[in-house]
Amino acid sequence: MLLIKCPYCEEERPELEFRHAGEAHLVREGKIIDQSDEDFAAFLYLRQNPKGLVYERWRHIHGCGRFFNAIRDTVSDKFLTVYKAGEPRPDLTAIKAEGAAAPTTRKRRSRTTKSEL
Ligand SMILES: [Zn+2]
Description:
With about 120 residues, the protein is of the alpha+beta class. It has a single domain, classed as Folate-binding fold. Helices cover about 15% and strands about 30% of the residues. It has helices spanning about 35-45, 90-100; strands spanning about 5, 10-15, 20-25, 55-60, 65-75, 80-85. The strands form two sheets. The chain has a four-stranded antiparallel β-sheet, with helices on one face. A two-stranded antiparallel sheet has the order 1-2. The longest helix has 10 residues, at about 90-100. The radius of gyration is 18 Å and the shape is globular. About 10% of the residues are buried. Zinc ion (ZN) binds near residues 63 and 66. Zinc ion (ZN) binds near residues 6, 8, 9, 60 and 66.
């Protein structure tokens, strides 16, 4: 089970208490009236889907109910850090160095084959 630390409750809780809320730090450029339909549609619907570290919004929906941001590695599913909404985005280079040494909180089941039983 994946454990996620809520920055408001300040404790690790099971992933079932949380809901992913999309990409973090999205900023619309300029006024809506000045944008083309294609640019506005891209702002609304097009998201990056990188392999590796991503900035994400999460909500502790079955806890305090508050939104927060996180940096998660999409390859290992490991949360490198969490921070409150409205706080500036952390420096990724410092997080990468720190995260590489930190142990993962995800526990995986080992697979057994029929021949091992
Ligand atoms: Zn919380």
